[in-house]
Automatic annotation (TrEMBL):
It comes from Planktothrix serta PCC 8927. This is Dihydroflavonol-4-reductase. The keyword Oxidoreductase applies. GO terms for cellular component: cytoplasm. Residues 4-228 form the NAD-dependent epimerase/dehydratase domain.
Length: 326
């Protein structure tokens, strides 16, 4: 039985990956921070070790494992969180890859993001495209870019690392929740009277988990693979939610200047006065153009599944209805 080490196992993608690994008879060890919410790991037969990505003795926790799945990252679009994004996404990735090298890990699957790739107006980009880092909107995207560079550097040092870049996963175990989960919750709570004219690439989160396992089995060292599926406008996404739930989809489009103005006041003025901002400025800036991707490389080389997005949305809705006050 192969022993694997998973970071980020308490999160959305990580929780689905841990379940898939257990289903496929892997022996799973999960790194959790002392303050982590462990609900996503409840009743699972995993070995839990406490620690942080920046611990100096992290290699001790990896000893005895053959494979590392590094899924953990700090996700935030708030500008105030730049120090945390640098600490956990960049320095944390550098540290755990060095720890894996010291512990003798044979292969690492590093979970990057399409955020690190960037977007190109009017084009669904693939792995060959790279937006200049200065054009990536917000420090979250920049931090994922620089973290991915840490992985490429580690490959140059001789480590066997495969990079996967999930797009926008949808499904169960979105415990935090992600921004997409927040959108679904707002829809279910009837707190979404309008929408912005944007678009995203969506994928069933179980397909993302499968993509990680396929990357372990078939991925090429140093390569990156977009784990995505269907490009949808936000309007199309909301209409799918309407079909599933029977709730009306919003019909009004918000001009982008309105949320930009609100978010600027929120972060630049109210937050400095001690009030909690409600809309991240960088999140609004990202929505100014569709974020579309082409996952054909992962489909062709890894066999990435392309499950029905409507099914994934049904799973997400059912999970939120059972676990959250909607």
């Amino acid at each position: 039985m192969m022993k694997v080490f998973v970071t980020g196992g308490t999160g959305f993608i990580g929780a689905n990956l841990v379940r898939l690994l257990l289903k496929n008879n892997y022996d799973v060890r999960v790194l959790v921070r002392p303050e982590s919410n462990l609900d996503n790991l409840k009743n699972l037969e995993v070995e839990i070790v406490e620690g942080c990505l920046t611990d100096s003795n992290l290699y001790q926790s990896l000893k005895g494992c053959q494979v590392l799945f590094h899924c953990a990252a700090h996700y935030s679009l708030w500008q105030r969180d730049k120090p945390l994004l640098e600490r956990y996404n960049i320095i944390g990735t550098r540290n755990i890859l060095a720890a894996a090298r010291k512990a003798g890990i044979e292969r690492t699957i590093y979970t990057s993001s399409v955020a690190a790739i960037g977007v190109k107006p009017g084009v669904a980009v693939n792995e060959t495209y790279q937006s200049p880092v200065e054009n990536l909107v917000g420090y979250y995207k920049k931090s994922k870019y620089w973290a991915e560079q840490e992985a490429h550097y580690a490959v140059q040092l001789g480590q066997d690392i495969v990079i996967v870049n999930p797009s926008t996963p949808v499904g169960s175990w979105d415990i935090k929740p992600t921004p997409t989960g927040e959108l679904i919750l707002r829809f279910l709570r009837r707190k979404m009277p309008a929408y912005v004219n944007t678009g995203l690439n969506f994928i069933d989160v179980r397909d993302v988990a499968q993509g990680h396992l396929l990357a372990l089995e078939k991925g090429k060292t140093g390569e990156r693979y977009i784990l995505g599926h269907q490009n949808l406008t936000l309007k199309e996404f909301l209409e799918l939610l309407s079909e599933i739930t029977g709730l009306s989809a919003p019909q009004k489009i918000i001009p982008i200047w309105l949320p930009l103005s609100v978010s600027w006041v929120d972060e630049m003025i109210l937050a400095k006065l001690g009030k909690s901002p409600s809309i991240p400025l960088d999140g609004v800036k990202m929505s100014r153009q569709p974020m579309y991707y082409n996952a054909s490389k992962a489909v062709r080389e890894l066999g990435l599944p392309q499950s029905d997005i409507k099914t994934a949305l049904k799973d997400a809705v059912n999970w939120f209805m059972l676990t959250v006050d909607c």
